[in-house]
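Hey, sorry to bother you again with one of my protein questions. A protein chain has come my way and I'm curious about its shape. I'm sending you its amino acid sequence along with the backbone structure tokens. I owe you a coffee for this, so here goes:
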Amino acid sequence: MEHTPAAAWLTEAANAADKQGPGDLLRVVLVVMIVGLALTAWFLLRGYKREDD
């Protein structure tokens, strides 16, 4: 196995990232969806909290 310097590896990774297609948009949509679901669940479930005094 041949050793590849870090700078060359980063350059190659950056060049490959340009050819990925709609991956960035999909990641953003998924992150926003997951955060939205978590906030919605928190908002709905906080109404079920009981405070026994």
